[in-house]
């Protein structure tokens, strides 16, 4: 994941975060904030895990070969 891809994911949530300022109840603010951050972290994690190696047979950990 590049910096631009990460910033793109964050910028999609910016308007939702700004809308939280209109809430007058801290409980609702905290609840909505947690939901937004959970969704953002899910998107970031999926973006990190979705990149597959070019060779599906390539070993992922070289420390197993050092015996």
Report the strand count. Answer: 0
Residue runs with pLDDT of under 50 for 5 or more positions: none
Q: Can you give the helix content as a percent range? A: 55-70%
Question: Which oligomeric form is depicted?
Answer: single chain
In DSSP terms (H or I, runs of 4 or more residues), the helix count works out at 2
Number of domains: 1
Broad structural category: mainly alpha
What do these coordinates show?
- The chain is mainly α and 67 residues long.
- It has one domain.
- The protein has two helices and no strands.
- The protein has helices at 3-19, 26-49.
- The radius of gyration is 18 Å and the shape is elongated.
- The mean pLDDT is 85.
How would you summarize what this structure contains?
With 67 residues, the chain is mainly alpha-helical. The protein is 61% helix and 0% strand.
Question: What distinguishing features does this structure have?
Answer:
67 residues, mainly alpha, 0% strand, elongated
Describe the protein's topology:
Layout: H1 3-19, H2 26-49
Helix pairs in contact: 1-2
